[in-house]
């Protein structure tokens, strides 16, 4: 079985795969010419969507493609084939994303940045913080990552609500509602945490009307997709005091260009798409598990429905 590894860290992936599946024939690179040469023989593909899209555009097609990203938007571009099995990275980002969210929730509740600013100004800042116990968090996107975040936050006594494509019963959430209830539930939340994938239904949903529904004391965290946020409307909401702050991990254009309003928006923290990096060890475990499923004709973990976009 030939496996094409299209990854910046292809050597590490190959080393890990040799330990778990030494029978595989591995070919890895992050260079377009080498990848095209390796793809010519037909193979299973493992790697970054941005490195694999050029191969699809050249007419190469995998027997099966395992993305090393949770997001597979580049592979859904118009004109690309959809008649092959595609799986996204699932089940490996939950804890690291939960740690990211908890970090910023605690930092906000404990006024960490305000205290740092006070220290820089040599001003004694002794405003008392509140406890997370009794706070309300709205997690928008309740898949495996959103559920992991909820399970991480629950022991702190946070009241958890969720938004999904359809309402459902899903502990520890008190309620999981559909997208139609987003604005209503947003108005009750102290923390608004976006973890939605990029689909036509989730683009531009955080706009002027949404921010007008939020509590002025609320913190907005976007660790989902940048296209979900109308940038100008978020900046305006911060200037107008409609939000206490925002933590933005993902942007419409990355790297964020110089001069973008996010750079100097008040109370906005940029974290540079670092919330949940792929752990190659966990990804290789997922790949080997899925490889066994694929070879046995069984359902794959994280298989993408091209019509839904995730």
UniProtKB/TrEMBL annotation:
Domain of life: Bacteria
Keyword Oxidoreductase: yes
InterPro entries: D-isomer_DH_NAD-bd, NAD(P)-bd_dom_sf
Short name of one Pfam family: 2-Hacid_dh_C
Positions of the D-isomer specific 2-hydroxyacid dehydrogenase NAD-binding domain: 104-274
UniProtKB keywords: NAD, Oxidoreductase
PANTHER family: 2-HACID_DH_C DOMAIN-CONTAINING PROTEIN (PTHR43333), D-ISOMER SPECIFIC 2-HYDROXYACID DEHYDROGENASE NAD-BINDING DOMAIN-CONTAINING PROTEIN (PTHR43333:SF1)
Protein name, as recorded: D-2-hydroxyacid dehydrogenase
Source species: Pseudomonas spirodelae
């Amino acid at each position: 079985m030939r496996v094409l590894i299209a990854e910046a860290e292809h050597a590490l992936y190959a080393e890990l795969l040799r330990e778990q599946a030494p029978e595989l024939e591995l070919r890895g690179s992050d260079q377009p010419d080498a990848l095209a040469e390796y793809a010519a023989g037909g193979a299973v593909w493992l790697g970054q969507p941005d490195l694999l899209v050029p191969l699809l555009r050249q007419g190469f097609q995998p027997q099966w493609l395992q993305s090393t990203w949770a997001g597979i938007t580049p592979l859904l571009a118009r004109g690309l084939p959809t008649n092959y099995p595609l799986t996204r990275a699932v089940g490996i980002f939950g804890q690291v994303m939960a740690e990211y969210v908890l970090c910023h929730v605690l930092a906000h509740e404990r006024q960490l940045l305000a205290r740092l600013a006070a220290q820089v100004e040599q001003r004694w800042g002794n405003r008392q913080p509140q406890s997370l116990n009794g706070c309300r968090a709205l997690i928008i996107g309740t898949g495996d990552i959103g559920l992991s975040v909820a399970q991480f936050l629950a022991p702190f006594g946070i009241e958890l609500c969720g938004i999904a494509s359809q309402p459902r019963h899903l502990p520890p959430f008190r309620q999981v509602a559909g997208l139609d209830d987003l604005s209503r539930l947003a108005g009750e939340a102290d923390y608004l945490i976006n973890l939605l994938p990029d689909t036509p239904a989730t683009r531009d949903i955080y706009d002027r009307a949404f921010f007008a529904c939020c509590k002025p004391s609320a913190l907005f965290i976007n660790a989902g997709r940048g296209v979900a946020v109308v940038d100008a409307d978020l900046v305006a909401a911060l200037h107008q005091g409609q939000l206490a702050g925002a933590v933005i991990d993902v942007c419409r254009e990355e790297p964020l260009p110089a001069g973008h309003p996010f750079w100097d928006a008040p109370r906005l923290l940029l974290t540079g798409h670092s919330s949940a990096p792929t752990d190659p060890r966990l990804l290789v475990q997922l790949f080997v598990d899925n490889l066994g499923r694929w070879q046995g004709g069984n359902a794959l973990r994280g298989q993408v429905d091209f019509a839904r976009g995730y």
